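Self-study notes.
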Amino acid sequence: MRNIRQASRLEHRLDKAMEVFWEKGYYDTSIADISARTGLSRDVIYGGYGNKKKFFEMLLARYRSTYVAEWFTPLEMPDATLVQVAAFFHQFRNLPEPADKLGCLMCVTSSEVSAQVRSIERIVSRFLGDLRSLIRAACVRARERGEVRPTTDPDAVADYGVGAVLGLWALVRSPMPRSAIDHYVNGVQTFLGGLRPAGDGGGEG
């Protein structure tokens, strides 16, 4: 029982450490900041993970397996088509904490450090590649089933989708009103609805 409590306490501290990076960014976060927020000592961090970069990489992997895994759920359905892509974007209308204020840790990282640190760049690139592949696969299925026009280009739809995700997460972190996010999502839904064959109705609301 004691081991379970200790593991739970560590998980909580790791989530707090993730939020520090999420709020401040990689470069503006110090080990002292992490220790102050989480209670994890410098010795524990360096002894367990080697250095700040490796600790951050572990937290990115943790973020991918928790927040992103849940967020990707509609897209990862075995028979996902554009209905699920629309459901995926609908999630931006009601984001959970702390994503509703901090945005996406992967997207923040992609603009801040990925070009300078190759190991982190690979993590972020894999995330964006997975997102693109899932949207593309959903579009291919929709085209095979006649749910979109036969001329629909899955690569173009996937690139648009990834761009829309990056734009939406940037809006979330900005001082723009929440209504701006709804308007952006409306635009994405209109785009998706416009891919349907003529006379087949509209997109998801």
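Second protein, same conventions, sequence then structure:
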Amino acid sequence: MTPVKRPANSRPPGPAPVRRPGHESLLEELDGRWRQLSGAIVAFQSAAADQLGLGVTDLKAIDLLSRHATVTAGELAAMSGLTAGAVTGLLDRLERAGMIVRQKDPDDARRLVVRLRGSPGGHGAAAAPIRSVTRALRAVASSFTDAELATILDFMSRSEGVLREQAEALGERDAPGRGARRVRRRGTGGG
């Protein structure tokens, strides 16, 4: 039996949540905090990219590469939602900056794979700001109980699904002066 796939923004089956006094004000505060967190993420990404002499898109690619030993350009395009041409330019920039290595795929010499320059696993110095913020956020998360972490993870997972759906919907609309732009569904590496 195939499980029924729910939209990312839907609640799991079961009773509807009970609305308590003050619930709406908490939701409003959450809306504000969500925007503040988004701004803080953008500020961190900009500062980290500046420190490395990169653009934010380049930094996001480094983040994706830091999670995988090697990837192909096509896999990076699928994970990032960028076009193949944009990924080629991005990889050219990162290679000129000495941050990545392109090499033949050991399993298929016809293909090229990309990895971060540094250790054989590809976790080079370029990923240092990402590792640093990950350690700091893990320290914050460690103060929560397992049940609280499960709730946070559920919220983040559903929120990611909503954001990807919204990005896809925006990509299906015509951008003024640019024609229709299709946003591919991003893989598990997304940003």
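Instructor comment on the second fold: Helices lie at 23-52, 56-66, 73-80, 84-96, 128-141, 146-171.
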